[in-house]
Design the sequence.
């Protein structure tokens, strides 16, 4: 258990999280379209290739502006942090495949959200990836149940239903 007291999120934090959800939805849609025309592997390569080009450009601009900051950041990441690219590639392939099924965009994202919450609660419980471990509450279980129920409603009863 962590001795730090939990902080309440600021409105800007809430807005940033909400906006990232919108951007994630847009990215999943774009990746699904690429997957529809070129397959899941093509979609992943396209997404990560353009991301790599963008990252190289940003790092290049930062390098000319503040070389010390770029070097300091490079030396601080734990080794497991580099596994994000592997999970990102798998995520793009899985979502670009799932979106092009009867689940569609809403069903894919709803189940994806349920999976994210379940995994994040496991990470909180066991202190994975350097997070402080915390005791899960009935409220956490209720959130998972409600998100999963909402996902199933979207999939089976929303917009014509996938079944």
Sequence:
């Amino acid at each position: 258990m962590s001795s730090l007291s939990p902080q309440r999120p600021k409105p800007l934090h809430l807005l940033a999280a909400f906006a990232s959800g919108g951007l994630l939805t847009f990215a999943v849609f774009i990746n699904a379209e690429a997957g529809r025309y070129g397959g899941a592997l093509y979609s992943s390569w396209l997404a990560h290739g353009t991301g790599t080009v963008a990252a190289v450009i940003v790092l290049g601009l930062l390098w000319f502006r503040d070389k010390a900051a770029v070097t300091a950041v490079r030396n601080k990441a734990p080794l497991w942090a580099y596994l994000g690219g592997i999970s990102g590639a798998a995520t793009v392939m899985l979502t670009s495949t799932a979106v092009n099924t009867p689940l569609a965009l809403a069903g894919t994202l709803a189940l994806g959200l349920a999976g994210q919450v379940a995994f994040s609660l496991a990470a909180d419980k066991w202190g994975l990836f350097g997070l402080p471990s915390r005791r899960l509450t009935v409220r956490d279980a209720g959130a998972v149940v409600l998100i999963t129920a909402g996902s199933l409603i979207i999939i089976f009863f929303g917009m014509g239903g996938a079944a």
In short: The chain has six helices and no strands.
